[in-house]
Amino acid sequence: MSVLVYTESWDGKFRKSTFEAVSYASETAKLLGTDLVAVSLGEISNDELNKLGNYGASKVISASNIIKGDGQAATSVIAEQANDAKVIVFSNTYTAKMIAPRLSAKLKIGAISNVIEVATSTTPLIVKRKAFSSKAIEIVKVNSEKAIISIAPNSFGLIKTEGTLTIENSDTSEKGGITIKGQETASGKISISEAEIVVSGGRGLKGPENWGMIEELADLLVAATACSKPVSDIGWRPHSEHVGQTGKAVAADLYIAIGISGAIQHLAGVNSSKVMVAINTDPEAPFFKAADYGIVGDAFEVVPKLIEEIKKIR
Amino acid sequence: MNIVVCISSVPDTTAKINFTDNGSNFDANGVQFVINPYDEFGLTKAMMLKEVTGGKVTVITVGDATVEAVMRKSLAIGADAAVRINMNATDSYSTANEIANYLSNNPADIIITGRESIDYNGGAVGGILAEMMSLPFINACNGLELSGNTAKLTREIDGGKENITAELPFVIGGQKGLVLESELRIPNMRGIMQARSKPLEIIEPSSKEGLTSSVSFEKPVEKEACKLVDADNVAELVNLLQNEAKVI
Ligand SMILES: Cc1cc2nc3c(=O)[nH]c(=O)nc-3n(C[C@H](O)[C@H](O)[C@H](O)COP(=O)(O)OP(=O)(O)OC[C@H]3O[C@@H](n4cnc5c(N)ncnc54)[C@H](O)[C@@H]3O)c2cc1C
Q: Is the pLDDT of residue B213 over 80?
């Protein structure tokens, strides 16, 4: 028996969400009294792989010929390693959302996404997950003997341990029914789902030309930038920044909402954040009912002051 | 061209989410149900594709009779036929299994699901379905162009997008970008009238086997009241974030 964790990398580098999945999987392995094995897909250095040992993995299988975006190939490689696994852990990233369901069908194992806590029982496996766009928490039971768990980013945190890691290379090559032609990514951008701090702007900012201060504040705080749905629909900001019930989910340590009214659909996607700040001219704005801290005031006066104050402490 | 769009009937986005019987069941009392927003982008895309290539758009839903309102709406928007599999879906696997069964007898060129449903947020039906049918699955798909049997697709990835080509048939998990918000179609009177005479077939489920089951629901803990800081005292906000909340 073992616990298996898929350790996703981007251009040969792991991210916080990867280490979070390993930490979670390691706690699960402890519960089951077994070892944690990781699977990595794509080119990656041994130095990078070794970092997995710091979070509890005892072995990693590195299949460098597999492209993670090819869900069919990725699934069959992970399935090959899953014979012995009682629990298979993913971080709920875009790629995991393609692989974990496939794996569930291929191996006929119950899969649960958006998980926020380590299992409260292991036979049967019972976990808590976010549902109804974070308006509720669902307790779910897995009916199969084995389980696939995808954890919601930023819900569990990192747990460092000491240990030795063995690296095993696999030269499997497989290909599914798609061809990946390339990627277009904005470099240096912090991903919204993983960010510790998110600075978000709404229609109250009046126009795209006013986002300079939002970006400056975000840069200072090493934060991701986000926006409300209408802001992306009018084209002030890219769709990839749309957060809320029908956009990206945010679970940051700090979410700063500037000129956002706090509609139920907006709050649904962001209220898993630990601390929320609202800056709004309207004292009646619904966001103040959800926020931890607030300033009733004009964003064009408050945000520049906030930037000045943060510069003093950074 | 045969396009099948999997539609989920979900509580309206403004609905209050409550549970009955000590948290064991969702309280549908007074809740308005709508087409899952992600599926609506997919349905609109299906209509647009059909207008170019010809063919048929079928919507399929796994659910009891209460989902028919949403199915009729899909027909009013322009789908040609609807299929309801008469079962209360209990998990993604059993839902996908029923749809896969239907598709094995009624093959489709493009199968569209939403990236996730806004009620259970499982995000798994499309992927499970694709694996059951040994088809490619392009999730968080925000672009699809067809020429002949080859499609150019884009999918959202962390921090950008990925460009993909695939041959028909395949499954996508759709979202905004597939079509724009402004391209979404609102049913008109004629569509609503026509929808009444379009076929809505009801099929009994083949097996109800699920791999997971819901035990109960909880509401998230209520937040404490918001601490308001004066607009002239922004330094105090920074102080609170640094020393009280300890988040910066
Ligand atoms: C099916 C459906 C799904 C939806 N999904 C989402 C979603 O996922 N995400 C989402 O965000 N929305 C979503 N919405 C839209 C949502 O209902 C709201 O319309 C939207 O969130 C409002 O955006 P906003 O707060 O930027 O704009 P507004 O509601 O226009 O609010 C602007 C705010 O800015 C304040 N303001 C104005 N000037 C200033 C100033 N100078 N300084 C400071 N504050 C100022 C105003 O007081 C106001 O509160 C959805 C709606 C529907 C119907």
A: yes
Residues A162-175: tens digit of each pLDDT: 989 999 999 999 99
CA A179/CA A170 separation, integer angstroms: 22
In terms of residue numbers, what domain contains A252?
A: 197-313
* pLDDT range class, residue A288, cuts 50, 70, 90: very high
Query: What tokens were used for B195?
Result: 């929808």
Residues A203 and A164 in one domain: no
What is the pLDDT averaged over residues B105-111? Answer: 97
pLDDT for B48-82, tens place per residue?
Answer: 999 999 999 999 999 999 999 999 999 999 999 99
How far is A309 from chain B, CA to nearest CA, in Å? 6
Instruction: Let me know: does A154 contact A273? Beta carbons within 8 Å.
Output: no
State residue A81 phi and psi, 5-degree precision: -90, -5
| Residues in B touching A90 (Cβ below 8 Å) | none
What would the pLDDT profile of B160-186 be if each residue is shown by its tens digit? 899 999 999 999 999 999 999 999 999
Residue A151 belongs to some domain of the structure: yes
DSSP conformation letters of B20-78: ETTTTEE--TTPPEEE-HHHHHHHHHHHHHHHHH--EEEEEEES-GGGHHHHHHHHHHT
* Interface contact flag, A75 B38, Cβ < 8 Å: no
Total domains present in chain A? 2
pTM (whole model) above 0.80: yes
How many pairs of residues across A and B have Cβ atoms under 8 Å apart? 274
What's the gap in Å between A266 CA and the centre of ligand 1? 7
Are A165 and A233 members of one domain?
A: no
Both tokens of residue A58? 């005892």
CATH code, A21: 3.40.50.620
| Pairing relationship of beta strands B56-62 and B2-6 according to DSSP bridges | parallel
- For tokens 């945000």, what's the residue? A303
Residue carrying the six token digits 């006066």: A301
Whichever domain contains A214, its CATH number is 3.40.50.1220
pLDDT tens figures, A133-158: 999 999 999 999 999 999 999 999 99
Q: From CA A147, how far away is CA A167, in angstroms rounded?
A: 25
| Close Cβ partners of A232 (under 8 Å, ≥ 6 residues apart) | A238, A239, A241, A242, A247
- For residues A253 and A163, membership in a common domain is answered with no
pLDDT for position B158 = 85
Tell me, yes or no, whether A16 and A109 share the same domain.
Answer: yes
Sketch the domain layout of chain B as residue ranges: 2-215
A24 plus A160 within the same structural domain: yes
Q: Using CB atoms, which residue from B19, B163, B213 is nearest to A143? A: B213
Which atom in ligand 1 lies closest to the alpha carbon of residue A242? Answer: 9
Q: How remote is the CA of residue A129 from the centroid of ligand 1, in Å?
A: 27
Q: What's the mean per-residue pLDDT of chain A?
A: 96
Q: Are residues A40 and A132 in the same domain?
A: yes
CATH of domain B2-215: 3.40.50.620
The whole-number pLDDT of residue A240 equals 92
A99 is a domain residue:
yes
- Measured distance CA(A288)–CA(A286) in Å, rounded: 5
Q: Are residues A204 and A157 in the same domain?
A: no
Cross-chain Cβ contact A95/B157 below 8 Å = yes
